[in-house]
């Protein structure tokens, strides 16, 4: 009979993320924090003998794939982010800032699942059952098979799951649940790790879909140990401006679908509603074009979104100009400013620069570079772009405009909204036809793009005392 052998060794653990190591180091190998490694005591190292296999391995072709079939949540925008719906046994971590709408959305999802005669358990560790009931009445999320429990003890939560036998469990939030077997208050690294592991093991063994609400830190990252994100199947991030009704839901991690999809929601007093066509939310409402604005089309997964970029250049009162951005990447904006100053000759070096998107949209892909550049040029020369014009393209350090993916879908969406002119990189369409109602100008560098939308840019720059842009050879843009 095989016997267990045991010995002890000292372990060191990070107080921020819970990462452990057998020797002390000054910097955490997981979260890269300095001075957070402390000795966690001695841990027995055990070697266990092999046991009898209860469920032997089977050929992959004989595995029942229907057990992993996704089931709709009843909220189409949430299904889009999840990859079609919730998979039995899947654990989804939903994170976001306080008051952004996490609890409202998940209560709506729970009610819609309960209305389909599915047993649903909603566990609230932050509010009483009466408070959750009041919110459910406000957003019309009452259902006979939706059970509420206000618990903060892990053992009681697991007992509630065994008693109700639900198909879906919502835990709001994982940082408020504590285990009596672990020292420390609820929400610390050890407690969050133990609570999440126990709930995940319970869900996997019984085929229960679980939605976990997670808190975020002041810098926007998910609170608790980083291992929490590795344990769950899906990580969903809520985004949105506090003073705006628009909410964006992104899948940061997804074992069952894409991670580049985004869901759009409208948060109001009566609940949160999905927006299947949100393009108009990212555009300003005005009768005439104004200087410093340009419209682009960004791809969020398979969905094209028409978004407006606004830029403002103002004289700098000091020797160090300000660079302030919202919704765009600050590093790429600084690069575009340098390219405009060096390659095109637009006077931006000594000006304060402000760049922002409309409606709280976030432009993360390089395809928005050209729209940011043209908006800056428009503000510098105080001339608006031609009406109903969009710009799509990546700008390089040499001033070239590089091709981007999905130009056909971007142009089709812009034409549907009513835009009639587009500035795109050369060779984007190849032999594919453009939308009939749209005039497409293909450019190979930023100087050609500026000349295409601002024929008088040279005169305007000279009037403002700047060096004229370099001459644009003929044939760099075509219709």
UniProtKB/TrEMBL annotation:
Binding site for ATP: 96-103
Pfam families referenced in this protein's UniProt entry, alphabetically: AAA_25, ChlI, Zn_ribbon_LapB
Residues of the RecA family profile domain: 67-216
Keyword Transmembrane: no
Positions of short motif RadA KNRFG motif: 253-257
Keyword annotations from UniProtKB, A to Z: ATP-binding, DNA damage, DNA repair, DNA-binding, Hydrolase, Metal-binding, Nucleotide-binding, Stress response, Zinc, Zinc-finger
Superkingdom of the source species: Bacteria
Region (Lon-protease-like): 352-479
PANTHER family reported for this sequence: DNA REPAIR PROTEIN RADA, DNA REPAIR PROTEIN RADA-LIKE PROTEIN
Domain-related comment: The middle region has homology to RecA with ATPase motifs including the RadA KNRFG motif, while the C-terminus is homologous to Lon protease.
Function: Plays a role in repairing double-strand DNA breaks, probably involving stabilizing or processing branched DNA or blocked replication forks.
UniProt similarity note: Belongs to the RecA family. RadA subfamily.
Listed name of the protein: DNA repair protein RadA
Organism (species): Luteipulveratus flavus
Lineage: Bacteria, Bacillati, Actinomycetota, Actinomycetes, Micrococcales
């Amino acid at each position: 009979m095989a016997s267990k052998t045991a010995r002890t060794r000292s372990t060191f653990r990070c107080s921020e993320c819970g990462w452990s190591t057998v020797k002390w180091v000054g910097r955490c190998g997981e979260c890269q924090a300095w001075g957070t490694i402390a000795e966690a005591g001695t841990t027995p190292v055990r070697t266990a003998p092999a046991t009898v296999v209860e469920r032997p391995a089977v050929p992959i072709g004989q595995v029942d794939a229907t057990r992993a079939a996704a089931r709709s949540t009843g909220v189409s925008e949430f299904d889009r982010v999840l990859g079609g719906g919730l998979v039995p046994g899947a654990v989804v971590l939903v994170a976001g800032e306080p008051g952004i709408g996490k609890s409202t959305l998940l209560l709506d999802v729970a009610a819609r699942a309960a209305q389909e005669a599915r047993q649903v358990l909603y566990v609230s560790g932050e509010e009483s059952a009466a408070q959750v009931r009041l919110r459910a009445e406000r957003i019309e999320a009452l259902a006979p098979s939706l059970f509420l429990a206000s618990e903060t003890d892990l053992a009681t939560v697991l007992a509630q799951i065994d008693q109700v036998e639900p198909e879906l469990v919502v835990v709001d939030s994982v940082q408020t649940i504590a285990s009596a077997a672990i020292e420390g208050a609820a929400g610390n690294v050890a407690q969050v790790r133990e609570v999440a592991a126990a709930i995940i093991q319970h869900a996997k063994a019984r085929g229960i879909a679980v939605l976990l609400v997670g808190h975020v830190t002041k810098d926007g990252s998910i609170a608790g140990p980083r291992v929490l994100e590795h344990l769950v199947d899906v990580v969903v991030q809520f985004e949105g401006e506090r003073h705006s009704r628009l909410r964006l839901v992104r899948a940061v991690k997804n074992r069952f679908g894409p991670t580049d999809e985004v869901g759009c929601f409208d948060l109001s007093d009566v609940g949160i509603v999905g927006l299947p066509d949100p393009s108009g939310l990212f555009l300003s409402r005005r009768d005439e074009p104004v200087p410093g604005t340009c419209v682009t089309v960004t791809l969020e997964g398979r969905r094209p979104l028409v978004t407006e970029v606004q830029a403002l250049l103002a004289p700098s009162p000091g020797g160090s100009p300000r660079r302030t951005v919202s919704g765009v990447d600050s590093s790429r904006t600084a690069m575009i400013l340098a390219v405009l100053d060096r390659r095109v000759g637009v006077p931006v070096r000594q000006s304060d620069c402000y760049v922002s998107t409309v409606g709280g949209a976030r432009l993360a892909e390089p395809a928005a570079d050209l729209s940011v550049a043209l908006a800056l040029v428009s503000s510098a020369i105080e001339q608006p772009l031609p009406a109903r014009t969009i710009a799509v393209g990546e700008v390089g350090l040499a001033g070239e405009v590089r091709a981007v993916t999905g130009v056909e879908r971007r142009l089709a969406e812009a034409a549907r909204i009513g835009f009639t002119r587009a500035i795109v990189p050369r060779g984007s369409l190849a032999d594919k036809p453009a939308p009939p109602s749209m005039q497409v100008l293909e450019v190979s560098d930023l100087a050609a793009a500026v000349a295409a939308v601002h024929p008088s840019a040279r005169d305007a720059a000279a009037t403002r005392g700047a060096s004229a842009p370099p001459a644009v050879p003929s044939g760099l843009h075509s219709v």
